[in-house]
Amino acid sequence: MKGYRLMIPGPVEVAPEVLAPMNEAMEPHYGPDWTAYYNETLSLLRKVFRTEGDIFLIPGTGSAAIEACLATAVGGGGRVLIPNNGFFGDRLEAIARSYTAEVEVLKYAIGAPLDLVQIEKALATGRYDLLAVTHCETSIGILNPIRDIGAVCRRHGVRFMVDAVSSLGVDRLEMDAWGIDLCATASQKGLESPPGLGIVAVGPEAWAFLKRQESPGWYLNLTLWQHYADDWADWHPFPITMAVNNVKALRAGIERILTEGMSAREERHRQVCMHLRRKLEGMGFAMCLTDEHTAHGLTAVQAHPEVPVADLLQAVKENDKILMAGSLGALKGKIFRIGHMGPSATVATMDEAVEALSRSLKNLL
User: Fold this and answer.
1) Which domains can be identified in the chain, with CATH numbers?
2) Which SS3 state, helix, strand or coil, does residue 353 take?
3) What is the value of pTM for the model shown?
4) Are 103 and 97 in contact (CB under 8 A)?
5) Most buried among 146, 170, 188, 234, by the most CB within 10 A?
6) Strand (E) positions, the chain?
7) Rg (Cα) of the chain, in Å, rounded?
């Protein structure tokens, strides 16, 4: 795998200064010096989430962060509604069903916009404790309207959880202003750091809801993490051995993000996405989504009618040492996806991607 450039929906390529801490000497994950550094890192992350709430770094993946949210929120038998328009909506459903039988799904076609009127009608019944939804449905790159969904949840007193694994640090997300109670993400995408950390943010008003009943489990139980954050606050504010070097790398990634500025960063990703879409359309490719509905960290493209997706991606890999991605589930073989998050979200990089596709396509036709 050495030498390939990553233009996939994650993990993303990371800057040398972000990768460097992974090779630093090991140090203990406790004590006053480490705890001060760790708490400073959480404070920086609050600026990225735009929250005054609590942040937890869980060694694991984005799925671990999502499971921690759902296990704690509905693991004692809570009732959850999931608007689902793709593969990762299916995953939300699967995780939720492993903790409670009270799961209902508003099912949409893959990549179809969510129906806010239908969501409001469902929440108005008073049957649900929690609504959970993906922000960026990564399997096809649609950006769901979480700001509007959050407003609906507030009107009906329903707690709101967002899977932001592929959106935080790329597309605008304002956790507190938009009424998000639980938000899950991971280190290896928009936060432009190595894989290894699932990250959970808990909104300021969510704890009364989360502590209303006994949640199952230990490692992925957020009430346990909060207990250690309070009781061991001065030397070891988490219940496990922390992934020290991953935290250092994440800190370096966050510092890059905040130096650029959140709004400037979000606008850069938008502009790069639109540039790529116009270039691909100029080659004759059809986009899977309209400009209005696309996320800005990846672009989903319909397969060329004369060239199988697998053949095209293999040719780009062999000829230009660039990795692009197919898709998952029902979309496998029908579309391909180009990731543009973090350092790779530049016009120059996308022009290289288009040139590589053009060369390989000509050779295959």
Assistant:
1) 5-10+261-364 (3.90.1150.10), 16-259 (3.40.640.10)
2) helix
3) 0.97
4) yes
5) 170
6) 5-6, 54-59, 80-84, 103-107, 130-134, 136-137, 142-143, 159-163, 182-186, 197-202, 298-302, 322-323, 335-339
7) 20
In angstroms, the CA 346 to CA 1 distance is: 23
> How far is 267 from 334, CA to CA, in rounded Å?
29
Q: Give the rounded distance of the alpha carbon of 289 from its chain centre.
A: 19
Average pLDDT by stretches of 10, the chain with 365 residues? 87 96 96 98 98 98 98 94 97 97 97 98 97 98 98 98 98 98 98 98 95 89 97 97 98 98 98 98 97 98 95 96 94 96 95 97 92
Q: What is the DSSP letter of 325?
A: B
Cα 288 from chain centroid? 20
Nearest to 162 by CA among 134, 190, 186: 134
Q: Which residue(s) pair with 294 in the sheet?
A: 142
Which pLDDT score, from 0 to 100, does residue 242 have? 98
Cα–Cα distance between 235 and 29 in angstroms, integer?
Answer: 9
Structure tokens at 317: 């890999």
- Listed residue (318, 352, 357) closest to 337, CA to CA: 357
Q: Is the dihedral of CA 255, 141, 272, 324 positive or negative?
A: positive
